[in-house]
């Protein structure tokens, strides 16, 4: 049991780390800005998920696949597909944000709260 | 252009620039982004396991909890001025995980609050993270429409 | 027929306008650098007791301006032109500081070349008899520049090795034909630069974008005044940084006017220690402005330096032009400064 979860965490570490290292590689070699890389990641996530390729990676590496931004794309895509299955075509519009609402709402809410209580400060201090 | 005293063509100048510009430290960058990114994902897995185990959530809700907690931690670290140091060290290791998305939303909100609550904080929240949502959501809606046409 | 012109770009100033006084006010990081002790004022923190970084930059300009006026034993009302600029949209630091000073204001935008642009124009006004006393300022602030041009301060972006660090600092220089104190230096020639663009598009490598303009202006100055690099004790560029300086040396070598390694310095490299993690060096209007007023002018006044070329360099892009894929045009304006100490003395 312990070994099983250690093995799981190792997989999470390696897959998550590798997805980040690929981003770094793109960043250093192509001079793409982080914003462009993130857009590329989310589009890749949506595309891989639509063809059923990202699901197996999530089963294999758990948070190692869901925490990187490709996982965000995967959640959007799966949300849309479930939405269509359950509610018909309207799910194409409602499903994606429903599935990802947690992260987005948290970022907006905590972002606002933090902005209210903290001050901009100099880098490196 | 020939009226300039510098008779150097851009192609030659580009080569000169490459000669004197220090190379990016590829190995160091990859190593740093790999281990920091890996650790953030492991932390995410721990949160998901706590959610599904202790709090008896479904797997989907567990990953949702992961997102919320990581976003919360990033927001706090951004507010106290620590996250930019992590980002400078780890590069893609911190911006590829959802922590990067959260930092991209929180940092302009903090920075532009002085321009007002509505047009500063409120409007600038999405300046860096906006494109990710725009293209991610648009692509997923497209997938949904195609799926609806094919299977319904 | 303009009688004071030499060649294509250089203007000779027969009256040799004097620099009566200079003052520099810098941020804490600059205060910790190798030149920390020479600046007139080092801020305790980046906010400088103000509500925002923009207000702090404005206050820096105002304090530097007032210190320069005071050192030269002038009053604010003696100043006939106050000219200067900064990096912020609509040059708000300079113009809002001018609101406090209540003297005729000429706003300048030359990106990081603003200090020498101001000195060129100011000394021509004085030399031509259009003004007795002119005050030139330039400023930049890391935090205001970063949020306007790049990312919020809290955003965890990685800086590339070619990137430069915007100097938090302001410099003010008072020019006059009738100084009330011993002059610090005299301006003998100015050379207005052309805009040169050799196709550099990387906004994180501005030194490379500006080096061709620096070389172009230097070559014009040497040709117009029939001088050579060896006629000057020092050639000081504004903010080329590590990469830009190497490129300038290479370009000048290729053009047959080699500069000596130790007689060519850059304010962006002088102002920070290697360990201060500023990558390729300092940049911004405040970089050359504070180094000139805090470090170079006193050395000219003492006669340690006899004759130097001071040349601030500017990268003239905006975030809009960069996003639309345009390359970065550069410009450099040069001023020839001479020590007031007579030759043979000392």
Question: Which terms would index this structure?
Answer:
heterotrimer, A: 125 residues, mainly alpha, 6 helices, globular, C: 346 residues, alpha/beta, Peroxisomal Thiolase, Chain A, domain 1, 2 domains, 13-stranded mixed β-sheet, two-stranded parallel ribbon, 10 helices, 33% helix
Task: Give an overview of the whole structure.
The complex is a heterotrimer of chains A (125), B (152) and C (346). Helix content of chain A is 83%, strand content 0%. Chain A is mainly alpha-helical and 125 residues long. Chain A has one domain (2-117). Chain A starts with a helix and ends in an 8-residue tail after the last helix. Chain B has one domain. Chain B is built from eight helices and no strands. Chain B is extended, with a radius of gyration of 22 Å. Chain C folds into two domains: 17-176, Peroxisomal Thiolase, Chain A, domain 1; 185-338, Stage V sporulation protein AD (Peroxisomal Thiolase, Chain A, domain 1, 3-Layer(aba) Sandwich). Chain C has ten helices and 15 strands. Chain C has helices at 28-31, 53-71, 92-101, 114-127, 142-149, 206-225, 241-254, 267-270, 285-301, 319-323, and strands at 5-6, 10-12, 18-26, 41-42, 81-85, 105-107, 133-140, 165-166, 169-176, 185-191, 234-237, 264-266, 282-283, 307-315, 330-338. Chain C is globular, with a radius of gyration of 18 Å. At the A-B interface, helix 1, helix 2, helix 4, helix 5 and helix 6 of A face helix 2, helix 3, helix 4, helix 5 and helix 6 of B.
